[in-house]
Amino acid sequence: MHRVVITGLGPVSSIGVGAENFCHAVRAGKSGISRISSFDVSGFEHQMAGEVTDFKAGDVLTQLDVAEWGRASLLAAAAARLAADDAGLDDVGEDTAVLMGTTSGEIPHVVAMTESWHLNGDRVPDAALAAQLPAGRLALAAAQELGATGETMTFSAACAAANCALGYAFDLVALGEAPVAVAGGADAVSRFTHAAFHRLGALAKDTCRPFDRERDGMLTAEGGAALVLESLDGARERGARIYAEVLGYALSCDAHHPSAPEVKSIARTMDSALRRSGVRPQEVDYICAHGTGTRLNDQVEAQAIHSVYGHAMPPLSSLKSMLGHTMGAASGFGSIACALAISRGFIPPTINHRHRDPDLHGIDPVAGAAREATVRVAQNNAFGFGGNNAIVVFGSAPCTS
Q: Would you say residue 243 lies in a domain?
């Protein structure tokens, strides 16, 4: 078994594009939430989301024809390109694997085609638009951009998808089946997703307040997140910078409810992830929480963490307070944040947190501002509809000598 390390980070987010910009924004507690501009929201009571407004795919991508790909695919490919460049991978290599997760794939195109059929009476779909629909194109876009001809796969595990992709990438590299793997996730803001969560009553009015006593829901968002994983030996051989080590992961399914999380299943997944990583609960310095900002999800997550860690719970925070819920990319951003927390020595904040909730077992949500800290071990939580749970554990970078 090879030890697996992270050598490249590629965030494309509403608070910053590229590792350094993203790191500065997270550390500063920047908000990426604004009024939705990508579709007409005049009929919606809730009109805020986390859109990537300053992203031009053509400024990042070098190999893809932007016109031939949907927005989610472009976000995935751009994240992969940024991660590869950050890792200093001039030659990606023919055995490099590309694994991407998504919740909705190219759902904006599905919406566009449906509206065209309904409003214009189109009998024959736009062939160019239809060609962009398959969710598998997200990983294909990233692979084609990088020239990576190893294993390529797109994971659809709702909001746990990027961690699923990361876990699979870890296995490939650890087992020697791929020297390098690029893994992450992507999703685009769409009327469909916004309307779905609106109908569920899950959207916040204008601000996402994870773990706050007054929290009232989540905000939809978009983005692409990718990380470069490679063997420790390979990274050392080429003199690569190492952000962190991937220690292990665990996946599970609640088999309980289509949308409501389940405490025991999540706690069991945490236990399994820590055990497989060779980490004791008291050794974890930070938890990047799923933290959606809904009443139920935050309550269940806090209860599960308490059941595993007892009263010695480490600090935790939710990036969704800054980014909104980026769906299939969410745990990819969480993994990037964990790598930065370990390598840069800080714990990301939960912004918008004003009132401690006495029902959340005394958690420390790192409210308002980032905290300077030595982070040796970090845990990244991801839970999705369908009972999908995926947790990844990271550790300090091994000595490079």
A: no
Helix, strand and coil percent figures for the chain, each rounded to 5 = 35, 20, 40
Burial tier of 173 (Cβ tally within 10 Å: 0-12, 13-18, 19+): buried
CATH of the domain at 43: 3.40.47.10
Segment (H or E) for 229? strand 223-231
**Active-site entry in 194, 325, 338, 353:** 325
Q: What is the pTM of this model?
A: 0.95
Closest residue by Cα to residue 286 from 254, 244, 323, 326: 244
- Domain C-terminal end among 238, 266, 296: 238
159 an active-site residue? yes
**109 given a catalytic annotation:** no
Given 23, 109, 159, 198, the catalytic residue: 159
The string of pLDDT tens digits covering residues 295-339 is 999 999 999 999 999 999 999 999 999 999 999 999 999 999 999
Range of the domain at 257: 248-395
Q: How confident is the model at residue 401 (pLDDT cuts 50, 70, 90)?
A: very low
Q: Which of 108-112, 328-332, 375-379 has the lowest mean pLDDT?
A: 108-112
- Dmax over Cα atoms in the chain, in whole Å? 66
- Same domain, yes or no: 35 and 167: yes
Q: Which one is catalytic: 46, 198, 290, 353?
A: 290
Contact 315, 286 (CB under 8 A): yes
Shared-domain flag, residues 226 and 277: no
Helix (H, G, I), strand (E, B) or coil at 392: strand
Is 361 part of the annotated catalytic residue set? no
Among 247, 238, 236, 280, CA closest to 399: 236
Q: 36 vs 41, 47, 196, 358, CA distance in Å?
A: 7, 6, 15, 33
Q: pLDDT tens, 252-287?
A: 998 888 878 899 999 999 999 999 999 999 999 999
Number of domains within the chain: 2
**Is the dihedral angle over the CA atoms 295, 298, 302, 308 positive or is it negative?**
positive
Chain mean pLDDT for the chain: 94
